[in-house]
Amino acid sequence: MKTVAVTKVGRLADPDEDARGTVEVIDFPRQPLGPEDVRIRIAYSSICGSDPHVAEGFFRRDVPFGLGHEVSGVIVELGERTTRSGLSVGDRVACNFLKFCGVCRPCLDGRQQFCENLRNEYRRPGMSEEVVWHESQVYRLPDSVSLLEGCLLEPTSIAVRIADKARIRVGDRVAVCGGGPIGQLALQVLKMSGATSLTMIEPIAERREIALATGAEHVIDPIAEDQAARADEITDGRGYDLVVDASGSPRAVRGLLDLATKGGTVVYGAMYPHDYELPLNLAEYLYQRELTLTGVFVAPYAFPRAMQILPHLELAELTRAVFPLEDAAEAFQVHLSGKHPKVVLKCNDLDDLDLQ
Ligand SMILES: [Zn+2]
Ligand SMILES: [Zn+2]
Which ligand places an atom closest to the C-alpha of 300? Predict the structure, then answer.
């Protein structure tokens, strides 16, 4: 079974060839189908901003290990005890790559993202010809969502959780920093939630254009413009009620606290380098300004709502760059170039099923 795997840990863009990480397509054994499992032939699997970090060894795993957690596909086989979920062979689906155990203390306490039994046999890679996951991980796609769009369910779930953590109120002034897929999706979700003065902060012109076409009222180029002055201009000197970071960039997050209004919220909705520490003056930002700072790890509970809004999102710009599974190494290079906000792998040709 062809699967995209990290065969050497390292930075994928490292100029030193000896240190550079390697992603390639290798053969993995077919996974067994347990009684509550679902076998899915993968249609599309998109590259996540986190994948290069995983290849760098963020989670410290032994090579080779497979990649891929943003998938859509078609059910080809059901375990004998899967009737509870109402799934059928032939269903078009998208998935949550995490299987929460449901019985550990964090799971019982409503904090499934901290499930103590995640490192189990269900950690299976989605950039593959097929995957076997537990029925609790599988969601049926509505007819109006194509398989290509469906692979964006997982990143959409993160955008939904960002809105949850932000506790946005209708009319809040909102800035999003970083116009990658999570930033673009978060922008659209926050717009739906009543965001005003909606601003995308992003150095790449094409990504600012995408944001303007999908709901941003303002854009700021943080390199060519004075970010704080522009934010003042847009918010009449008051600052934003909500600032979301979706850039994951230590350089970009530095100035964000100063964009928030007194009593405002800053959501760090990205993956950050292990060793980065944000300077934070407690007297100023937490005592005098009463800012709320929060973050997002993964998105339990957000999948059903992500599926509800998927048909209402503008996804064309996030589904333009599609590569065959075999060309995964090239697709990763295109992802790293930043040319497209999202790069998608086509793992099987299942699109005509969309016409049914
Ligand atoms: Zn992802
Ligand atoms: Zn658990």
Answer: 2
Judged by DSSP in three states, 265 sits in strand
Kindly state the tokens that stand for 104.
């550990």
Q: What is the pLDDT of residue 354?
A: 55
**Cβ atoms within 10 Å, residue 101:** 15
How many angstroms does the Cα of residue 283 sit away from the middle of ligand 1?
A: 35
Q: Is the pLDDT of residue 234 over 90?
A: yes
> What amino acid positions are annotated as catalytic residues?
50, 53
**Termini Cα distance of the chain:** 27
Q: Is the pLDDT of residue 84 over 80?
A: no
Asked if residue 343 belongs to a domain, the reply is yes
Find the ligand nearest to 155 CA: 1
Average of per-residue pLDDT across 232-243: 98
- Spatial CB neighbours of 242, under 8 Å, sequence gap ≥ 6: 166, 168, 172, 173, 174, 175, 190, 195, 260, 264, 265, 266, 267
Q: 16: how many CB neighbours lie within 10 A of its CB? A: 8
Q: Are residues 263 and 328 in the same domain?
A: no
Domain-embedded: residue 220: yes
| Arithmetic mean of pLDDT over the chain | 94
How many domains is the chain built from? Answer: 2
- Residues around ligand 2, an ion, CB closer than 5 A: 101, 104, 107, 115
**Cα of 116 from ligand 2 centre, angstroms:** 5
The ligand minimizing its distance to the Cα of 104 is: 2
pLDDT band at 352 (very low <50, low <70, confident <90, very high): low
Give me the CATH number covering residue 192: 3.40.50.720
pLDDT of amino acid 356 = 47
Tell me which residue range forms the domain holding 177.
Answer: 159-295
What is the CA(98)–ligand 2 centre distance, in A?
11
pLDDT in tens, 167-185: 999 999 999 999 999 999 9
Q: Are residues 108 and 143 in the same domain?
A: yes
In a domain, 215, yes or no: yes
Ligand 1 centroid to Cα of residue 81, in Å, is 29
Residues 279 and 184 in one domain: yes
Distance 113 CA to ligand 2 centre (A): 8
